[in-house]
């Protein structure tokens, strides 16, 4: 075990002086201020702060004559009267490498800024020929490939609205998303490769298109066919056996979409005009279609990528993600600060657990981001990352990273700070994170992000320091949703975040904020463990249990209800060749009792073949709890939103 808060890295004077945040503070006239003082100013004077972000980065657009901020949550408005376009700001550079693409089968593609701008112009012209204009929706059923980024930027340039789903999503899951937004055009691949295997999705695309009567056209990208032919997708057309006449208008290939040259022009739209539609990772009911605006995302990603990831021109940015996770949207935001995003399509563990580290080495990545489970998997597999001389930072998100994960990175990559970030799809960024001005301590997130007034509320709705409480935001941020799609009254939006504390955003995480502004995330508050009146975060359990070599994964559930004590159940998935023995159970219970408390000792430990997870890798604690309390398995979670729905039946009582 590594002590929470153990010092692992401290910035040198040279690192602090060179940090992009330090340059901003100098420009602001606050170079002598400590971070907490600047953070306090940014949240107490949000209009001044966000106006400074616009000015500092020279955002392209018109700020307008209206106030920077008016109203209160959930109806706060930003830069009223302003106009902006995300794609114009993302494509403002003209020289050098714009992006790199790598796939697990070894394919590699590099696009210069000139080539990217030309491709966006061509696809923009193609979408316009199909009748796409301001406010129309374009849907992508695409892996993390250059065509996805190009299609998104072309859509944004028109003032149209982008929405994407990964081809590993099932048909029903995609239809549940796209049917809500009524897209005019669907852009899809015929298949993809993952973990060394090919997956033909042409039948799925036909089903999806048939279920979307709003479509005027379906654009096929012969990604799988091209890979089998050994050539880039734009040089291959869909095989006749993989397509059929679709009810949703015409069917064309990617080459047909980009066939004609066109001008690269940008439709400037109001600051809060919809840019894209993301979806909540809920496991029951229709996914919530979360709409973000052009202006809010531009400002938030400029601030976060430059000041919290320290990214700018000359940097190479990698984050392992699919197009169905908000981290894809964050990754492509690298274009806004002039960094090079590395797009990767494939498995994180193929052909070995070191796959992503090898990509980071071969591409000279300067900032490497992954979900917390990948760091823990690398640690358990004994991975020894090498060839990372250019690496200046590592990022972790998706779930809490235990102190041991921090310590492993510090040991394997000495001198490279690891920044743990936490936020969500809801705002497409992190509320809390790191900077190069902060030391890195095991298991601790160094700071609350600039412009994010994060507080911990106790059960009475009062802010607390040094205690675990509900993560809330008491001031608006520009990247908060401008609305939910098909929610004209805003009722569904208000119920999602403001039903507990009126006028205050409740995010649904447990957080402890320390005196120095650092914090620790303890997991979802809607999967609360309450033993003897003491609230406990699930991340504490996982840290102890998953340290055992015999345990590959775990899930802890408390079946208690309000006013009624329940049972504390620990589910474990065993590592290969491991068996569940009485000795292992005794060792697990002893470790939980010693390292946490007697309250943490489970009433029962059960071995299961797998722990249910969402497609983005998050553990499904709430659906399992519902099953244990009597909800039928088929009603507890949407299988199309899960990576491994077959394991749910093993949790039925």
* Poorly predicted runs of 5 or more residues: none
Beta strand count: 36
Shape: globular
How large, in whole angstroms, is the Cα Rg? Answer: 24 Å
Q: Main β-sheet, in a few words?
A: 7 strands, mixed
What structural class should be given to the helix and strand makeup? alpha/beta
Overall average pLDDT: 91
Question: Explain this structure to me?
Answer:
This protein is α/β, with parallel strands linked by helices and 653 residues long. It is 30% helix and 24% strand. It contains 21 helices and 36 strands. Strands 7-6-19-18-20-21-22 form a 7-stranded mixed beta sheet, with helices on both faces. It has a 5-stranded parallel beta sheet with strand order 9-8-10-13-14, sandwiched between helices. A 4-stranded antiparallel beta sheet has the order 27-28-30-31. Helix 3 (35-44) crosses helix 4 and helix 15 crosses helix 16 (403-412). It is globular and about 70 Å long.
